[in-house]
Specification:
With about 120 residues, the chain is α+β, with helices and mostly antiparallel strands. It contains 5 helices and 4 strands. The model has no long low-confidence stretch (mean pLDDT about 95).
Length: about 120
């Protein structure tokens, strides 16, 4: 199944609720993700721009979008960012395909015209 990196920033109200009632939210998150056919690979509290980061194994983009929508719509998050992840083998395949697709950027074309 495809992997996704989900990053969440809590609202001030969510932090206040967690301070008043400390709890491991990964259990609740894992249950919701399992209902969508996925699983939590890893999850961490963090500090900086995002408060929680998790790697999710989801069946498809629709399931990944569904959990992101649920997080964003729940009212505890001020920001939710989900990024699809690729293995290094997939990235190498993408690099090879990019090199052979024939695309030329507008700046490369402009540079070639100026050099003439």
């Amino acid at each position: 199944m495809p992997l996704y990196l989900t990053q969440v920033a809590y609202t001030q109200e969510a932090w206040q609720a967690l301070m008043n009632n400390p709890q491991d939210r990964m259990d609740i998150i894992a249950s919701a993700i399992q209902k969508l056919g996925g699983k939590v690979v890893s999850g961490y509290f963090a500090f900086g721009e995002y408060d929680v980061v998790a790697t999710l194994d989801m069946p498809d983009n629709v399931a990944a979008a569904a959990i992101a929508i649920a997080f964003a719509g729940g009212g505890s998050c001020k920001s939710v960012k989900t990024s699809p992840l690729m293995t290094t083998a997939e990235a190498l395949d993408a690099l090879k395909k990019a090199a052979g697709c024939g695309y030329r950027s507008v700046t490369a074309a402009a540079g070639a015209a100026t050099a003439r």
